[in-house]
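Response to reviewer comment R2.3. The reviewers asked that we include at least one raw input/output pair. We reproduce the pair for Malonic semialdehyde reductase here without editing.
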Amino acid sequence: MLDILFREARTPDGWADRPLEASVVHALYDLCKLGPTSGNCQPARFVFLHSADSRERLRPALSPGNVERALGAPLCVVVATDPLFYEQMPRLHPDEELRSWFAADLSLAEDTAGRNGTLTGGYLILAARALGLDVLPMSGFDNQKVDDIFLGGTGWRSNFLLAIGHAATAPARARAPRLVFDEACLLL
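Raw output as returned:
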């Protein structure tokens, strides 16, 4: 399983012409929602662009280098956060009155939403890989345009995009270098 999730998983260069069933989209969410968030706050929100028409609506918000990457995938996901996630806290963490903490400190709520929403987006990557899918994360897009096109009326804010599907071929390039432990870590 570690090979599937990490060691052999690669960012695809292109997408195979293999559609994803709606049941796979539901399975992705059903897995990623189980990942832990602080206080079970669950601030992540997802817009699954499953149809070609919905993905095409994304085009004006994409950086030129990401157009084919996003639109060629059978699924593109807007990973977003709900800044008012704390309104769900009485249901999600009923044994403590956490809602009042966040409602009284919007800076704390914003930090918590961003941190835990990004974390849950990472869970979505792992869920996709566990289901045998390939994933391409993207930050090359205009957040405001994405919010205007897809999130109007929700109050949600886009964070990053994930293109998901089956790679057309193995990546042509070797895996990019990674920092070694001593460069990236302190063991105290």
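The chain is about 40% helix and 15% strand. The chain has one domain: 18-166. Further pairs are available on request from the corresponding author.
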